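wait is this the right file?? whatever heres the structure
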C-alpha cells in the first residue's frame, strides 16, 4: 500500500488549530490519519502556544503508534537541552512549557519521557524512497546523500543565519536558492505568508503563534491546505 504524507508546519503548542487542520484533511479524529497516510511534523512542537505540553504528548503518542512522524526543531532541541540540565539552556522562550511540566502530576517521570521522545526525533526524515525529505530549518545538497555530521546539525535546525537586523531579528540566507538535489524538501522554521513550491522545496510554517494559520502539504498530491484559527 503506497503511503501518503500530510506534512504540518511548526505547531508551537497550538493543538486546537491542529484539530481544525486534521478535520480539513478528512481525519476522523485529531492525529488520526487514514491507514494509508501519515501525519508528519516539521518540528517546534511546543513553546509559544496555549497547549505546549498537550501538543508534545499528543504528537508523541501518535509517533509511538506509527500514525505520525516528526523531525527535531530548534525549540525542541532547546527543550531537550533543558531536560538534560545543560546550563544556560532555560531560555525565555521555554518559560511556558517549563511551567507546564513543573505543574504536572509527576514532573520527574514526565521529564524522562519527554527527553526520550525528543532524543528519538531525527534531524532529517527521508520518505517515499528518498523522493521526499522533511527538515526543520534548511538543508544543503551535500547533506542529502551523506551522513549528517555534528557540524550540519546547527544548519538543519536553524537555517543559514547570516546576522541580525537592527531590530534584533535573525537574518537568514535563502538556502532553497542554492538547493539542487533530487529529493523534494518540506521544511518550516521561517514563517511565510503564503506557502508555495520554490526550487523543489516548500516552507510550510505559517507562523501559527502570530497568525493563527497552520498549514499542511500533502504528498504526493502536492496540495497545500491551510486553516485559520
Ligand atoms: Mn524553529
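ok assuming it is, sequence goes like this
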Amino acid at each position: 500500500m503506497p503511503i501518503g504524507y500530510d506534512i504540518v508546519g511548526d505547531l508551537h503548542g497550538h493543538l486546537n488549530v491542529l484539530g481544525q487542520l486534521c478535520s480539513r484533511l478528512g481525519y476522523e479524529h485529531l492525529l488520526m490519519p487514514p491507514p494509508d497516510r501519515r501525519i508528519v511534523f516539521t518540528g517546534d512542537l511546543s513553546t509559544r502556544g496555549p497547549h505546549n505540553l498537550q501538543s508534545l504528548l499528543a504528537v508523541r503518542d501518535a509517533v509511538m503508534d506509527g500514525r505520525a512522524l516528526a523531525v527535531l526543531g530548534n525549540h525542541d532541541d532547546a527543550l531537550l537541552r533543558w531536560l538534560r540540565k545543560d546550563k544556560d539552556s532555560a531560555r525565555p522562550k521555554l518559560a511556558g512549557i517549563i511551567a507546564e511540566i513543573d505543574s504536572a502530576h509527576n514532573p520527574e517521570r514526565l521529564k524522562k519521557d519527554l527527553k526520550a521522545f525528543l532524543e528519538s526525533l531525527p534531524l532529517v526524515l527521508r520518505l517515499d524512497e528518498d523522493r521526499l525529505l522533511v527538515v526543520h530549518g534548511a538543508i544543503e545538497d551535500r547533506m542529502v546523500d551523506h551522513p549528517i555530521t555534528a557540524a550540519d546539525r546547527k544548519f538543519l535546525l536553524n537555517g543559514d543565519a547570516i546576522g541580525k537586523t537592527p531590530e534584533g531579528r535573525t537574518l537568514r540566507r535563502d538556502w532553497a536558492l542554492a538547493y539542487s538535489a533530487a529529493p523534494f524538501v518540506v521544511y518550516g522554521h521561517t514563517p511565510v505568508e503564503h506557502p508555495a513550491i520554490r526550487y523543489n522545496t516548500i516552507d510550510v510554517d505559517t507562523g501559527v503563534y502570530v497568525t493563527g494559520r497552520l498549514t499542511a502539504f500533502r504528498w504526493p498530491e502536492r496540495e497545500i491546505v491551510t486553516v485559520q484559527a
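Residues 10, 44, 73-75, 136, 189 surround manganese (II) ion (CB under 6 Å). so i think its the right one actually
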